[in-house]
Amino acid sequence: MLMAAEPLNSISKGLGLGLGLGKLNLRGRNGVSIKLGRGECKWKASMNLITNPDAFQVGPFLGSYGFFNVTSYSGFKSGVDYDYLSEDVGKLRTQDVGEGGVNIRLYEGRITQGSLRGTSVLFKVYPGQRTGGAEADMMAANELSTHVFLQSCSNETCQNLLMLLGGFETTTGEQWLAFRYNGKYSAADYAKISSEKLTKNKSLDPQSYWNPFEQGQTFKRRRYFVIKMLQGIFNGLVYMHAHDRLHQSLGPASVVLNTISEREAPYLVAKLRDFAFSVDISYSSLEKGPGSLSEGLWRRAIAAGAYNTMEKRNFGIADDIYEAGLLFAYLAFAPFCETDIMDSLSLQFGTDPNVALAFGYCSADDRLLEAVQFLDLGDGAGWELLQAMLNPDYRKRPVAAAVQNHRFVTGALL
Q1: DSSP per-residue letters across 361-374
Q2: Are 357 and 348 in contact (CB under 8 A)?
Q3: Which of 162, 331, 323 is nearest to 249 (CA)?
Q4: Whether residue 19 has pLDDT greater than 50
Q5: For position 101, what pLDDT does the model report?
Q6: Residue 110, CB half-sphere, CA atoms under 13 Å: how many?
Q7: C-alpha angle 142-271-259 in degrees, rounded to nearest 5
Q8: Beta 270-272 vs 255-257: how paired, if at all?
Q9: Which element (helix H / strand E) includes 300?
Q10: N or C, which end of the chain has less CB nearby within 10 Å?
Q11: Mean pLDDT of the chain
Q12: Are 138 and 293 in contact (CB under 8 A)?
């Protein structure tokens, strides 16, 4: 099915909506040229994005999802990505979030013309202003501009970021962004499927639930798979921070995987996606003031005592690290526990930066044994990293490069 559509003209307009960016110029119907000027930092980037709607064929509908807006730090409340966490204990310090009104649709598709003919794509569809309001256009514009910047600011592309190939606008105002198709599964899908497998295998024969050798091999492969996934996640985050961009919506659903087969772990590539709330933290951009999509971040920065430009920049980076720490905690537990356990699990880190409370709580529950043993590797290296990433004091959290090089993440302990 071919969509009747127009070029990305409303996304072009959206680039001027408080995002601190320059002008987007469409070259005919086959490319994009962006010219930005920020104080003394002036550069020109050119990409051959495909903007001709006739060059795409739209395939099956894959699903839809919404976004959450971060508003503040406080006690944890159940949400989409972490609904297994109980509110009874609920002392894990995280962001309070409110569900936004923008609903995103996903479709498979392919490119039918040009040098990339036959290339599989994943369409991410933002609603037009009639249904999604101005926020939808701003989010689409922000995601577009972030990908264009990150894919243009280096001679080498980062393999751990989803690649934008082009897009178009339909006659109804919907923004269709086309990404290279790298698989339909996310880290959230992997964790859910892994947990369900554990539950199913045990229910089939509870008395002879695997022999020790098979069980050991299964969890050995799982540990390696999760570590390989974390390496990709943190490598992508390092690249973004090194190029002055925050992710700001990092969660299990924001990581796409090319495979969920643990036997294929050596070939696993984890890629970050969902840059709708990405924030430019270059000093020149920070001096211009907050954009519409980053006001909440900078309110939280001021509340945490970050007032000047350098402090705000450091807070933003630490904020991404906190989100990455929550994702790390999720991936350290969800794939290693049965579904019914995860439905009622509470991770009690409290407000103390020491994770002794969490360790004691989890170690006392035999159902969490495999997750605890995973974090215990290297005399508790996993707990050590969690403690650092989830430190209530943003000034004491490590930068992404330090997390990437931590002995737990490098795989040296496996």
Answers
A1: HHHT-GGGHHHHHH
A2: yes
A3: 323
A4: no
A5: 66
A6: 9
A7: 140
A8: antiparallel
A9: helix 295-303
A10: N
A11: 79
A12: yes
Spatial contact of 15 and 24, defined as CB atoms under 8 Å apart: yes
Q: In terms of pLDDT, which residue wins out, 116 or 83?
A: 116
Beta-sheet pairing, 120-126 with 175-180: antiparallel
Query: Which helix (DSSP H) or strand (DSSP E) does residue 256 occupy?
Result: strand 255-257
Q: Are 180 and 119 in contact (CB under 8 A)?
A: yes
Is 319 a residue whose pLDDT tops 60? yes
- Asked if residues 347 and 325 have their Cβ atoms less than 8 Å apart, the reply is no
The pLDDT of residue 317: 98
In angstroms, rounded to a whole number, what is the distance separating the alpha carbons of residues 270 and 176? 23
Greater confidence (153 vs 320) lies with 320
Q: How many Å separate Cα 173 from the centre of its chain?
A: 26
**Cα gap 107→60, rounded to integer Å:** 6
Across the beta sheet with 175-180, the strand order is 5-6, 164-170, 175-180, 120-126, 94-111, 56-74
Mean pLDDT over 380-409 rounds to 95
Q: What is the rounded CA–CA span in Å between residue 328 and residue 318?
A: 15
pLDDT tens digit sequence for 118-177? 999 999 999 977 666 788 889 999 999 999 999 988 777 899 999 999 999 988 889 999
Burial class (CB in 10 A: 0-12, 13-18, 19+), 96: middle
User: What domains lie within the chain, and their CATH numbers?
Assistant: 5-61+98-180 (3.30.200.20), 185-410 (1.10.510.10)
Share of the chain residues as helix, strand and coil, in percent rounded to the nearest 5: 45, 20, 35
As given in the structure block, the two tokens for residue 203 are 């229910």
- Find the farthest-apart pair of alpha carbons in the chain and give their distance in angstroms, rounded: 70
Does an H or E element contain 143, and which?
A: helix 129-152
Length of the chain in terms of residues written: 414
**pLDDT reading at 23 higher than 50:** no
Residue type, 268: L
| 242 token code pair | 């090194």
Q: What is the DSSP letter of 77?
A: -
- Residues linked to residue 301 through DSSP beta bridges, in sequence order: none
Tokens of 377: 């590797």
Which has the closest alpha carbon to 66: 245, 253, 237? 253
Cβ(234)–Cβ(400) below 8 Å: yes
- Pick the closest to residue 312 from 299, 325, 324 (CA basis): 299
Residue type for 176, please? W
Q: How far is CA 98 from CA 60, 95, 381, in A?
A: 30, 10, 33
